Amino acid sequence: MSNNSQSFLDPLAVHQQMLCGQLHHFLASLPPILYGDVVRALEEPGKLFSQPPSEVDHSYPVTPAGIWSLLTLAIIEYIAPDINPLCASNVAIATECCICAIDLLDDIIDDDQTSIVQDLGTSRVVNISTALLMLAQRAILSLSSMGMSSVLVIQLLDVLQDEISVCTSGQHQDILAESKPIQEFTDEMCLEMARQKAGSLMRLACALGTLCAMADDHVCRLFAELGELLGIANQLDNDCHDLYYLLQDGKAPLSSTEMKSVPKPIKTDLIRGKKTLPIVLAAKSDADFEMSLLSDRESNQTNALHKGILGTWGICLLYRERAHDCLQEIEEARQHPISPSLRFLLGFT
Amino acid sequence: MEEKQLLEFVQRVSEDETLRKELTNDPDSVIMRESFSPRVARVVMRLVPHMSAMQWKEPAGSLNWWFT
After folding, report:
1. pTM for this model (two decimals)
2. B43 touches chain A (CB under 8 A)
């Protein structure tokens, strides 16, 4: 772990501890038969109960456990530092549970053989997802017993429902796209799917934070936009890496510099015929492009795929630039810079 | 629209060797000539090393250009 990453992770440890305590409080309400499996889901990489990897790459910034809930909490603290920490934690727990639930469903939908799917099977994982969605709502409803106005509680639930609805719609478009010919897709359609599928989740994490902190409408809108832009950028980044791995598989091993830049894939997006931006761009630049040849690494499509990755990477950087501009607008509106921890969680370090 | 402008530029670079060489040797002039917004210009500047390193004509070349 780099010294740089460590300096951001240390202050986050206090938040992680507080969030873990609150999450255990909500988990205690689950029937014992369900409890262990839900905890198991929250131990997946990046989730709040996840353990640091045994082999740490000391030069690459690690993803802190509970990054989603930490993000919501850090936004609340930035806008309303004097807020009741329990209220803030419960809203952050809602983010954690909701996104963990959606991630599990995404694994099932995409037939990804993640460790939890392999260990517990699809039926149990689907049921865990339902329990987590219920816990997310319970975490928000608990605010009414902490003195938060019922209007605000309803607004928080409304945001939760809205963003889940957008995400679900994006997932559905993605599923339907699998069986359609790639030539029917445009880059605008791919970006819209990324906005709905991934933009909505980061938008949710930001919007719950600003609403809980009772930020003004302008700041709420800016943070929601910031989340959406970063969510899309992250999705495009993932799409590039998935394709990279497909093309790289079977070739000479990557250098250590390359390996640390790329997470190990278990994704089956490409095999399932997902219409991601790099693939759609590749098809646009090669009239004879065929999805079925994607697994043939010797095919002449490789050059088109390289172009697809480069174009997508450029769009990913463009969205990050827009997000950066958005962050500057937030800091101007608040007349106060965000904390180094929040900057780290947003990926701006 | 910035997305379209960026994608069209990448496409042109992939097809035009002269533009590629010019971009490698004097990226500032190319960026100025293309009238990119400051945001797109920043992105293009970051893509220049990748675009220069990529083996556009190699059908099954390695992807090492991405990590240049």
Report:
1. 0.89
2. yes
